[in-house]
Design a protein that fits this description.
10 strands, binds adenosine-5'-triphosphate, six-stranded mixed beta sheet, globular, four-stranded antiparallel beta sheet, binds magnesium ion, Rossmann fold
Length: 263
């Protein structure tokens, strides 16, 4: 899928439904995401963000509706879509007995980086990016939680995918490194890569070019952060999301701590 079919949008989802038994995780969702942007997926626990991300690379089979990625129908061309995509899962999927280097090397081989010299160079690059080059030989079992998250990002980026699906990529990552992740995400988007990032962190949402607010398997609102704030008539995104979810935001004097629980 180096660049996919022509100039089709990165993602075109129409009427997407996913039913898990009695739970309707996606409820007739339609969404178009252009290429080369950072798209933020927001919404409370259980809103359907992970299910949507998994449906985009064919790991969840839709109950109904259509999913096109880079112009490919995911149902019939899932392998092409997955080859050109990087998916960072919400729960770390690493081999804990293998070292940092071996984990990234394993991903690189799976994604067809067969030239040993180039693979080595690329692994070094991504390990520098996530600031783990000094820990390349450490078994993953001996790393901190945030460091594991960084290995996972390195595994996701190693084959230079054109579409990145990042499910809460910065959970447990310290603020300084979080900042450098986001700077790199922007560099990738500027080079034409499309990034879809789920997050619960509002300052990360502000860094996205467009946002989709999900709730109960539907899109409640879609647009730039400024458009969403304007639509809700609120000064910040967090209040906009509460407002659009039908929850009255607390008055400013009561919300000073900023750690109010979003349901
Ligand atoms: N494999 C599965 N089998 C059964 N139910 C599932 C499965 N995967 C997800 N669900 C259900 O689908 C709904 C949406 O889950 P999903 O993981 O997509 O939410 P989310 O928005 O990613 O939440 P979070 O913010 O907690 O990560 C939830 O009710 C969840 O329990
Ligand atoms: Mg999730």
């Amino acid at each position: 899928m180096s660049s996919g079919n022509g100039q089709a949008p990165a993602v075109e989802v129409s009427g997407l439904v996913k039913q898990f038994g009695a739970v309707r995780a996606l409820d007739g969702l339609s969404l178009t995401i252009p290429r080369g942007i950072i798209y933020g997926l927001l919404g409370p626990n259980g809103a359907g963000k992970t299910t949507l991300i998994r449906a985009l690379i064919g790991l969840v089979r839709p109950t109904s509706g259509s999913v096109q990625v880079m112009g490919y129908n995911v149902l019939t061309a899932g392998a092409q879509v997955r080859a050109g995509s990087g998916y960072m899962t919400q729960s770390p999927a690493l081999y804990s007995e293998l070292s940092v280097w071996e984990n990234v090397d394993f991903s690189a081989r799976i994604f067809g980086l067969t030239d040993g010299g180039k693979r080595k160079e690329r692994i070094s690059q991504v390990l520098q990016l996530v600031e783990l080059d000094q820990r390349a030989n450490t078994p993953v079992s001996n790393l901190s939680g945030g460091m594991r998250q960084r290995v996972l990002l390195a595994c996701t980026l190693v084959h230079q995918p054109q579409l990145l699906l990042l499910d809460e990529p910065t959970v447990g990552v310290d603020p300084q490194l979080r900042y450098s992740f986001w700077r790199y995400f922007r560099t990738l988007a500027d080079s034409g890569v499309t990034l879809i990032v789920s997050s619960h962190v509002m300052d990360e949402a502000e860094r996205c070019d467009r946002l989709g607010l999900m709730r109960a398997g539907k899109l409640l609102a879609e647009g730039t952060a400024a458009e969403i704030r304007a639509r809700a008539g609120t000064a910040n995104l967090e209040d906009a999301f509460l407002q659009l979810s039908g929850i009255t935001p607390l008055p400013a004097s009561d919300s000073g701590g900023g750690d109010r629980i979003q349901q």
